[in-house]
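Let us practice reading a record.
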Amino acid sequence: MASASPTRLAIGVVTAAAMTFATWSAPAAAEPKPSESQLRGDLKQLNKKVDQLIERYNAKRVELAKAREAAEAAKKRLAAADQALAAAQLKVGELARLRYQSGTLGLPYYMVPPDGASAAVVEQLTAEQQAIVAGVAAARDEQKKAADAAAALARRLSADTTEVAKQRDEAEGVIGDIEKKLEDLIPFSTGRRSDGTWAPQLPSGTDNITARTRAMKAQIEKSFKLPFSVGCFRSGSSGEHPLGRACDFMMSAGGSMPTAANNALGDRIAEWTVKNRDKLGVKYVIWKQRINHGSGWNAMSNRGSITENHYDHVHISMH
């Protein structure tokens, strides 16, 4: 076989090196980042999973409470049966003492019925005692079974609780990651100057609010399931509302205290807004007779009503 020329060998080496570089050195394509809609969908599913885990945990607690109630009821029935047995034993013991003292197997004369059927009375007393003894034995058996069932359920609940808590913590950890990614997607509102201050904006549109206020409202509506309406522009009032720079996120129908769930929702909305105030252009937040300009919550004076003290709505004012 003819030997390859130096030129062909050089071409071959270069070609092989190029192929090797293309095969091993090319960076892998980065996986596409999830969209905001995908993240919100995942967040919804995870929150649903956490709710199911909590529901399962509570169902187990109810089951255990019922088992403990049954064990306690059985314990009380056993105590009553023990008392009945003690009374029967006392009665039979007294009868035996009297029979011993009288020196006869029959009843003493003052205990003999008018018809003289003393043997029948003794037999009846004996049968009653035997029935009570049997009842005590049954009650003890019932009490033991109920106590054992409650103890076994408590052990299972302990194991279930540990597993449920682990799953909940894992889900909440993922929820925290998703919420962080969603917060990273929040765009900076318009009108922010290079020094961090905010340029004034005029109200616009049919809702008579500024672009920053509108963007803040849209972000909160995307991030939370709001139970009631949102009120922004309001003429003839003081503060930011007539300027189109404030919104009230109602947690009740107005004038009444929110439910526990809506009160907790108001807490989350207020904290989320404060956390993202620099991106949104938030001036301050008022909630539950407190105000936050970004440096912590400060108590406000009593204005005299649930609404005026902001217990039924989260107020957000914008720059």
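A brief commentary: The chain has two domains: 36-185, 211-318.
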